[in-house]
Write a structure and sequence with these properties.
It comes from marine metagenome. The protein is an alpha/beta fold and 289 residues long. The chain has 3 domains: 116 residues, Alpha-D-Glucose-1,6-Bisphosphate, subunit A, domain 3 (Alpha-D-Glucose-1,6-Bisphosphate, Chain A, domain 3, 3-Layer(aba) Sandwich); 93 residues, Alpha-D-Glucose-1,6-Bisphosphate, Chain A, domain 3; 60 residues, Alpha-D-Glucose-1,6-Bisphosphate, subunit A, domain 3 (Alpha-D-Glucose-1,6-Bisphosphate, Chain A, domain 3, 3-Layer(aba) Sandwich), CATH 3.40.120.10. Helices cover 34% and strands 19% of the residues. The protein contains 9 helices and 12 strands. The strands form 3 sheets. A 5-stranded mixed β-sheet has the order 4-3-1-2-5, with helices on both faces. A 5-stranded mixed β-sheet has the order 7-6-8-9-10, with helices on both faces. The chain has a two-stranded parallel ribbon with strand order 11-12.
């Protein structure tokens, strides 16, 4: 049996799209595991670690609550290519019923409650065993989105003192005057609580905007620049950095002075990841975070 796993952000409409997806996939003979609210990157990592045939994230990312959509991942945890997505769209438009299975061969569905814990354990493996954030005060704005459970939990496990906002989703308040598209909230909270850093997520927690202890915004290009120089110094940077057509020229110029290779690709994290994989680079990203 083929296996699909499904996660979502906190939009109310996700609770109607999820059963429709489950119905369609099990009618095609697939077994389905659902996780509930989970960051997009968590869904991608679990698709790979659970050896699922596909992962589906129900989200409209940084858009308002009334929008929704799907992000599709293959068994390698990477987003499906444009070509494959177009084939799927054609099958949907054709209202093809040939793939429906015999009633005796219907797939089963099971809800798993430990998706966020599994994701956190995968992330913790990226840190040295002696790494900790003790003495660091961090303000988190989870945007009332998919990261409202995993993000505070991970940073607390690493020893940080965490002040969390945007952690009370109600199905309608995702990205609503909070999160990465509304950085004013994290800036004021950092100054209010005298934190060392602020981190703000979008609705499905696959982009971040940060600010320093003075409330100054640190965008995606600046984060990439800091990581690139740090990783080069620690000899863990592989090859260079992938940016996009929207990456600031200042980033390109900075990396040139640091003697770090830099290549651009089309806008979209899918294209960044594809080029990173092609060149075997381990760092890339977008200005949007």
């Amino acid at each position: 049996k083929q296996i699909a796993i499904i996660a979502k952000d906190t939009r109310l409409s996700g609770y109607t799209l999820e059963p429709a997806l489950v119905s369609g996939l099990t009618s095609g003979g697939m077994h389905v595991f659902t996780f509930g609210p989970l960051p997009t990157n968590g869904l991608a990592m679990l698709t790979k670690s659970m050896k699922a045939n596909m992962g589906i994230m129900i989200t409209a990312s940084h858009n308002p609550y009334y929008d929704n959509g799907l992000k599709l991942f293959g068994p390698d945890g990477m987003k499906l290519s444009d070509q494959i997505e177009k084939k799927i769209e054609k099958l949907i438009d054709a209202k093809n019923t040939k793939q429906l299975t015999n009633p005796k061969l219907l797939g089963r569905v099971k809800r798993l409650e430990d998706g966020n814990d599994k994701y956190i354990e995968i992330l913790k493996k990226n840190f040295p065993s002696n790494f900790n954030l003790r003495g660091t005060k961090i303000v988190l704005d989870c945007g009332n989105g998919a990261g409202y459970i995993a993000a505070p939990k991970l940073l607390k496990k690493l020893g940080a003192k965490v002040i969390s906002i945007g952690i009370k989703p109600n199905g309608f308040n995702i990205n609503d005057k909070c999160g990465s598209t509304y950085p004013f909230k994290i800036q004021s909270a950092v100054k209010k609580y005298k934190a060392h850093v602020g981190i703000s997520f979008d609705g499905d927690a696959d982009r971040i905007i940060m600010c320093d202890e003075k409330g100054k915004i640190i965008n995606g290009d600046q984060i990439i620049a800091m990581l690139a120089r740090r990783w080069k110094m620690k000899k863990i940077l592989k090859g260079g950095v992938i940016g996009t057509l929207m990456s600031n020229y200042g980033l390109e110029n900075f990396l040139r002075t640091e003697k770090i290779k830099f290549f651009r690709t089309k806008v979209g994290d899918r294209y960044v990841k594809e080029k990173m994989k092609k060149f075997n680079f381990n760092l890339g990203g977008e200005q949007s975070g």
